[in-house]
Every structure is written in C-alpha cells, then in structure tokens.
Amino acid sequence: MLENLFKGTGPITKLILKQNRFKIVVWLLSLVIVTLAVASAYPGVYKSEQDIMAYALTMDNPAMIAMLGPGYDAADYNTASIFANEMLIFTLIAVAVMNILLVSRATRADEEDGQMELVTCLVGWKTILFICESHYGSDA
C-alpha cells in the first residue's frame, strides 16, 4: 500500500529536474564563481595578524556564535578559517533563497497553468475509488 503512494514519483522528479536544469546550473555556477572570487580576495582583506585578531574578537560575540556555531580559538584563526566561517552563512542564505525561488516557481506556475489541478484530480480520484471499494466493496 505504501509503495502505491510514491508510484510515479521518479518520472515526476525527472520532469521537474528537466524543466529547471538551466536554472539549477546557473545557480550552482554563480555560487561557485562567487566563492572563488571571495576566496581570491581574502588574502588582500586580512593582511596582518591584527586584522585576523579583530575578526576573532567579532566571532566571540554571542550573536555570531548563534549563527555560525562555536568558532576556533583566537590563536587558530587564519584567512582559511575566516573564509570558511563567512562563506558558511553566505552559502546557507544563497541556497535557501535558491530553493525558495525554485520551489515557488515550480508549484505556483503549475497551479496558474492548471497542471496541478490535473495531477491532484488524478490522485484524488484513485484515492476516492480505493476508499469506496474498501468501504462498500467492489460492487460500488
């Protein structure tokens, strides 16, 4: 019974990936490009040990710990650990926005075109038939 609930999920997933493949590739490439651009800029931003220690003091703030988790010891900070901390929050925000936009576009566009009504109608019809047959027998 449970496998019938997920029957046809594979082709629908393939269809959604096929419809959004260009958008997904653009989002992923933009994330990679921004990450590489930021990584190349970090040695110029944090030039001295004093700059790195200033960042370590910023990361000691309870708000930053709440957003990024416990950081490194002040003596362990370098440009790589700073990059990892800052890109974690940026990447999380970017992926969240990407997912919200892709999902809302996929669901709202189908609703506005009337395609979602067809899918839910078919699923609903099969469920109604199952309930009727199980409740009233196969003579219904």
What's this entry about, in short?
The protein has 140 residues and is mostly helical. It is built from six helices and no strands. The longest helix has 37 residues.
What order do the helices and strands come in, and which of them pair?
Blueprint: H1 2-5, H2 9-45, H3 49-59, H4 62-68, H5 79-113, H6 115-136
Helix pairs in contact: 2-5
Main β sheet profile: none
The number of helical segments is 6
Helix content: over 70%
Oligomer: single chain
N-C termini distance? 21 Å
**Structure class:** mainly alpha
Radius of gyration: 25 Å
Instruction: Bin the strand percentage.
Output: under 5%
Succession of helices and strands: HHHHHH
Overall mean confidence score, pLDDT: 78
Please tell me what the overall shape is.
Answer: elongated
Q: Are there runs of 5+ residues with pLDDT below 50, and where?
A: none
**Based on DSSP secondary structure assignment, what is the total number of beta strands?**
0
Question: What does this protein structure show overall?
Answer:
The protein is mainly α and 140 residues long. Helices cover 83% and strands 0% of the residues. It has six helices and no strands. It has helices at 2-5, 9-45, 49-59, 62-68, 79-113, 115-136. The radius of gyration is 25 Å and the shape is elongated. The mean pLDDT is 78.
